[in-house]
Design goal:
CATH class: Alpha Beta
Pfam families: Amidase
Low-confidence stretches: none
Mean pLDDT: 97
Helix content: 25-40%
Keywords: Transferase
Family: Belongs to the amidase family.
Distance between the termini: 33 Å
GO molecular function: transferase activity
Protein name: Glu-tRNA amidotransferase
Structural class: alpha/beta
């Protein structure tokens, strides 16, 4: 199912029976090359040292079972990769698995591992999680070390876990995030105040979010979130600039996939004026999210505005950037955001419920998600 680029078993204790986890191929594992699932980096030397998160997992007794496939250079939303293969969406093999952490989401959804690490620069954990019907967390920016992750410098990117249940999510976060409060994160929060953000999304998905809030019996109200659309556009500008800095030189190799080659050629044309405007939008949107969270514990909204399109539609040119319209803004602001699978009317597939919390309140986001999970399971 091409979820893995390479499979192996790595543990601090070879006899350990700890939980299994796979690592996205944009995160260093000593002795294995970090290729970003790109032909242009196929000859990269093996990493000399583990990324900090990898070492933390090993120290905590996790067993690493391989490196997962991804959208090339983490620069795409579909997960389609004609070099390493496209991971199979465990919810529907005809649909895209989502990018860029496609292999990590697919491996967890297919129950090949207990958890997987991904990276999220413009929705690249939460998007694939929603596509593949699993849980994905983008932690607060800076909460989890990026040392040993590619690209080496980013003002947007976060390392975070995929799991099938919140208890495993909490255990994974406890391993990779210093001072993560496991007890607080596992304590089902049934008394949170929830603000439902009004957004443009398919009716069935919006109703699914509202139904989940009702089933969980949270006190709730609807809100408008200022600057959401501007933050989406600004996030595109920032990721273009930062990805071009890291990878634009690979265009001249002629070894990039057509989609990434085209995106990089556009990315290098981003102007300083566009970047300056994006940073103003970052400040405005961050302040808007902080204001919204002054009077509520978490914000909830769909993860994706629609179910994932088919691979065929993506290959035929159906635009996909709007997939990230509701997730990319929170990379810009840096708030923690988790995608939880929820049922929707008229579809065997699950959609994603996105839960956004205050900066540093990753534990509270997990606790609210745990109550959602329990309430939905009992309904």
């Amino acid at each position: 199912m091409t979820a893995f680029i390479s499979e192996f078993t790595l543990g601090a204790d070879p006899a350990a029976q700890g939980p299994t986890i796979a690592i996205k191929d944009s995160i260093d594992v000593a002795g294995y090359p970090t290729t970003g699932a790109s032909r242009a980096l196929a000859d990269a030397p093996p990493a000399a040292a583990h990324a900090e998160v990898v070492q933390r997992l090993l120290d905590a007794g996790w067993r690493i079972t391989g490196k997962t496939n991804m959208h090339e250079l983490a620069f795409g939303m579909t997960g389609i990769n004609d070099y390493t293969g496209t991971p199979v969406n465990p919810q529907d093999a005809a649909r895209i698995p989502g990018g860029s952490s496609s292999g990590s989401a697919a491996a967890v959804g297919a129950k090949l591992v207990d958890a997987a690490l991904g990276t999220d620069t413009g929705g690249s954990i939460r998007g694939p999680a929603a596509c593949c019907g699993v849980i994905g967390l983008k932690p607060t920016f800076g909460r989890v070390s990026r040392k040993g992750a590619v690209p080496r410098e980013s003002t947007l990117d976060c390392v975070g876990p995929f799991t099938r249940d919140i208890a495993t999510m909490v255990d994974a976060m406890a391993a990779i995030a210093p001072a993560f409060d496991t007890n607080a994160a596992k304590r089902l929060n049934a008394s949170a105040n929830v603000a439902i953000v009004s957004v443009d999304a398919d009716e069935a998905i919006r109703q699914g979010v509202e139904r989940a809030v009702q089933v969980a019996a949270f006190a709730s109200r609807a809100i408008e979130l200022d600057h959401l659309k501007e933050a989406f556009e600004a996030g595109l500008a920032v990721i273009n600039v930062e990805t071009a800095r890291a990878f634009a030189h690979l265009v001249e190799t002629g070894k990039l996939g057509a989609d990434v080659d085209a995106r990089l050629r556009v990315a290098v044309q981003t102007t300083q004026a566009q970047l300056d405007a994006a940073e103003r939008a970052r400040r405005a949107f961050t302040a808007a999210v902080d204001r919204a969270l002054e009077n509520t514990d978490v914000l909830v909204l769909p993860t994706l505005p629609a179910l994932p399109i088919t691979i065929e539609a993506a290959r035929n040119g159906t635009p996909v950037l709007t997939m990230s319209s509701l997730i990319r803004p929170f990379n810009l602001s840096g708030h923690p955001a988790l995608s939880l699978p929820i049922p929707i009317e008229g579809s065997p597939m699950k959609a994603g419920l996105q839960i956004v919390g205050r900066k540093g309140a990753d534990e509270e986001v997990c606790a609210v998600a745990a109550h959602f999970e329990a309430a939905l399971a009992a309904s």
